Amino acid sequence: MDAMIPSLSPSALHSPATAHRPVPLQQVARDFEASFLAEMLRAARFGDPGSAPEGGIGEAQFASFLVEAQARQLAARGGLGLAEMILSGLMARADAASTDHE
Fold it and tell me: Of 33-37, 44-48, 84-88, where does mean pLDDT reach its minimum?
């Protein structure tokens, strides 16, 4: 299953119409950063069942949801800056492609 990302011109990404609304490419970059952060949190055993007393029977099943939600919140608040680096790299590539075709 291939997800198609709509192509965006560099001017469309900087237009006033998109200033208040996330651009799909920005959301994809943020989602990627959230996935990366979730894997880092899992590797660090953050939210590991047994780290808190009396978690109950369902703690292990729901621990992954906690880690993913925390990773999404971290990414939404800037995270490591990975989403911005990805987006700026893609923007530079789009700018270079648009100048090559002119």
Answer: 44-48
